[in-house]
Amino acid sequence: MSYEAMVSDIVFSPDGEYLVATAGTDGTARVWDIANGSDVALMAYEGTVNGVAFSPDGEYLATASSDRTARVQPWRPEGLADEACARLTRNLTKEEWQQSLSDTLYYRKTCPNLPEPQE
What we know:
This protein is an alpha+beta fold. The protein is 15% helix and 35% strand. It contains two helices and seven strands; from the N terminus they run βββββββαα. It has helices at 77-87, 94-100, and strands at 7-12, 18-23, 28-33, 39-44, 49-54, 60-65, 69-74. 14% of the residues are buried.
């Protein structure tokens, strides 16, 4: 783990596998994998991140920032995809897929529960 900014808060996930550090000088909250020291999630803010907390089940991360925002959001990639699919009304078009996920070779439905868009 290497962190260049001043750290203002540190918390461990309920299962002890992850650590969240928030930095006052760079406006981010980062989730670190304790086993290998890599950062696995990054949340950016306009202002200083003042505090963080995991939900009791470890699936959500709550953050408070000096930009007058408080967020509660899933922090794992699979949780973010599930959250997006719960809020969307359709899948991405092939063009949107290529713009957003250009390094992915083939198109697939983003949300299996939603219809494919009409081209």
